[in-house]
Automatic annotation (TrEMBL):
Gene name linked to the record: rkpT1
Chain ranges passing through the membrane: 35-56, 68-90, 110-133, 140-162, 174-194, 231-252
Protein name: Transport permease protein
Gene Ontology annotations of biological process type: lipopolysaccharide transport; polysaccharide transport
Pfam families for this protein: ABC2_membrane
PANTHER family: CAPSULE POLYSACCHARIDE EXPORT INNER-MEMBRANE PROTEIN CTRC (PTHR30413:SF10), INNER MEMBRANE TRANSPORT PERMEASE (PTHR30413)
Cellular localization per UniProt: Cell inner membrane; Cell membrane
This protein's UniProt keywords: Capsule biogenesis/degradation, Cell membrane, Membrane, Polysaccharide transport, Sugar transport, Transmembrane, Transmembrane helix, Transport
GO molecular function terms noted in the UniProt entry: ABC-type transporter activity
Family in the record: Belongs to the ABC-2 integral membrane protein family.
Organism listed in the record: Roseicyclus marinus
Amino acid sequence: MGVASSANRSFASGRAVVALMLREMSTRYGRSPGGYVWAVAEPVGALIVLSVVFALMLRSPPLGNSFLLFYASGYLPFTVYATIAASVQVSINFSRPLLMYPAVSWIDAILARFALNLLTSVTIMVIVLFGVLEFTSASANLVFGPMILATLLAALLGLGIGSLNCLLTGLFSAWGSIWGIITRPLFLVAGVIFIYENMPESVQSVLWYFPWIHVTGLFRTGVYPTYAPDYISIPVVMTWIMIPLALGLLLLRRYHQDILNR
């Protein structure tokens, strides 16, 4: 009896997650001209601008001989984190009307936004990397293990920080703006436009405690097999994942109704 009831709840939750994903797909991409095309065009445009600007300033990229591939190897995993964190942060507010129904829970809303944005980000990553390697002079012997691990860590990092921010934004409406200001330099801290080894030791000693530099470094070991950084620490990244995720989920379980009633 208990097993059957648990299975029914899991099935109902799964259906709710899929329904929320379909709703967001139609809301975000179905109403704009081009739809998913813009989701791909945005990172491609950003990478082209980065490549052109730094090609004018530098003779060669820090790794390899293609500016476009180098910046893609840092920008794409960072975008996985940033996209998921931003979407999970507003998941309760986004799905607020549906959360009034007992069949849909707050965790369904978070899982739906996490799953959809992970699938979208991975699709964009595959398309962009294929395009760079196929239609430019860049070449690489990709090692998929580190790339997949880095992408998974980036996604979980986005889920953890996004869940905690979902709580804080729901309880304190100004937190979203404050967090946006605090994390404005994150693009630089993540090592998108440089590698850790090229920084002064004083800067390295600070950067090492931030998970994003470990994620981009790990991803680049899959794009550049001869690149073997010794600073990468999975435990650092996991600490940044587990603490915000545990706090966020535990406190959302306690305060999600207060957030919905605001």
